[in-house]
Amino acid sequence: MTETIKFPFYARMALILVCLISVFYIFYVSKDIIVPVIFAFIFSILLRPVMQFFRKLHFPHVLAVIFTVLIFVLIVLGIVVFLSVQISDFTEDWGMIKKNFSIHLSHLQEYVRDHFEISRREQQEYIDSATKDTMKTGKAMLGNTLLSFTDTLMSLILVPIYMFLMLLYRTHFMKFLCKLFKSEHHAKLEEIITQIKVAVKGYINGLIIEMIIVSVLTTVGFMIIGVKYAILLGLLTGLLNLIPYIGILFAGFLSIVASLTGSPDLSVIVGVIVVNLIVQFIDNNILVPMIVSSKVEINAFISILGIIIGGAIAGIPGMFLAIPLIAIMKVICDRIDFLEPWGYLVGDDLPKTYQWRKMKFPLYTYENNATVHVAEEIKKPLFTVTSTVVKPVSEEENKPNTQSELP
User: Fold this and answer.
1) Which contiguous run of DSSP H or E holds residue 5?
2) 393 with 376: CB under 8 angstroms?
3) Which regions span the lipid bilayer (predicted)?
4) Which residues fall within 8 angstroms of residue 119, CB to CB, at 6 or more apart?
5) Phi-psi region of 245 (alpha: psi -120 to 50; beta: other; left: phi over 0)
6) Residue 252 in contact with residue 274, Cβ under 8 Å?
7) What mean pLDDT comes out for the span 196-210?
8) Cβ proximity of 385 and 392 under 8 Å
9) pLDDT digits (tens, 9 = 90+) for 230-260
């Protein structure tokens, strides 16, 4: 008969920290291998319904997997070809961009000269001294970025191959997981796997819907104000919006640069900024709470921290994969007793909306039933001068003071 060994709290904490450090180190060292595998795992979960559709049409299993992966590759290639054609047309207007940029820079220098009494020569000296070392650093950063992008592109070529193998050997992998655990734990294992599929599929589907809506709104807005490459910029904004917090800043910068292909009128740039602000307001306050955040209950602090850590470890792919990986970790922690506090730390129990006259608005406060319930369950220990033994609290002492208790 096997006995369960119970470690003290400090030993469990040390083991958890050692495991986390080991996972981060392994991920950092072998990110070129692990990142394509994780992408393939996520897209395999997303495309499994497509494979099941082909199976219902009585396709053989191998043929259903081939057609599923082929559809994925064709969609990605279609987006890449469209962007390549549009970008090639965009590069032909580079001379117009430089000309209009010089006009705006000249107007800015005149404004500085008239209001701050700094001549054009002094301004140019300031610019030259400030950008003397920046050009070398910028070229190095550009080279590293292009190299990183090339490596990422080469790694992503392996994603369809990994997807094919994962979909093909799905049952084999499931049997392997069942063999790792005893039969009495199979129900818990099935629950964890099911919830992981639901969380990942819901998050990725939400991102795709968000990307489409943001692309359409941005394209329509740019068409209204007369930006030349409205469709290209709208699609790029939607794609870059998949990178949390940082992608939209880069998309806004590209939109401002692209607006210089039309006319040197400053109102176009102001219009581009206004359109981006309106779209981001709609995205952050309506689309994200309703479509994305409702699928994955992760608080904002852990999300930002995870994105920063993912970017430091694996660059842009790591930033994109941070939220799905945190969601998977939360599902596992919520269903393992000694890891449940970590799942609660990652999660978000704040109520998302409040109702006012039949209208719902975002709400960010801890005045909810879950927090009150936790507070009522935890009894406060009583410490005296001579003793630190926890004494039971009577019902009368445990009653809240309605006059002094904070809401």
Assistant:
1) none
2) no
3) 9-27, 33-50, 62-85, 146-169, 203-225, 231-254, 266-282, 302-328
4) 113
5) left
6) no
7) 87
8) no
9) 888 888 888 888 876 677 778 888 888 777 7
Distance CA 127, CA 352 (A): 47
Place of tokens 């994955």: 296
CA 27, CA 19: separation in Å to the nearest integer? 12
Q: Determine the Cα–Cα distance for residues 267 and 277; give it in Å rounded to an integer.
A: 15
- pLDDT-above-90 percentage for the chain: 13
Q: How far apart are CA 40 and CA 30, in angstroms?
A: 16
d(Cα 318, Cα 196) in Å, to the nearest integer? 19
Token duo for residue 305: 């921290």
For residue range 20-40, list pLDDT tens digits in order: 889 888 888 888 888 889 999
Indicate the SS3 state at residue 295. Answer: coil
φ and ψ of 258, to 5 deg? -65, -25
What's the confidence (pLDDT) of residue 293? Answer: 63
DSSP calls for 164-215: HHHHHTHHHHHHHHHHHS-GGGHHHHHHHHHHHHHHHHHHHHHHHHHHHHHH
With cut-offs at 50, 70 and 90, classify the pLDDT of residue 369.
very low
The one-letter amino acid code at 223 reads M
Tokens of 142: 């550009």
Q: What is the DSSP string of 68-131?
A: HHHHHHHHHHHHHHHHHHHHHHHHTTHHHHHHHHHHHHHHHHHHHHHHH---HHHHHHHHHHHH
CA torsion 392-393-394-395 (nearest 10°) is: -130
Q: Which of these, 213, 203, 363, 214, lies nearest to 292 by C-alpha position?
A: 203
- Nearest alpha carbon to residue 340 among 188, 184, 178, 202: 188
Say if CB 51 and CB 167 are below 8 A apart.
yes
Q: Kindly report the CA angle at 311 between 307 and 316, in degrees rounded to 5?
A: 105
d(CA 367, CA 346) in angstroms, rounded, equals 19
Structure tokens, 271: 């219009």
C-alpha dihedral (228, 229, 230, 236), degrees to nearest 10: -160
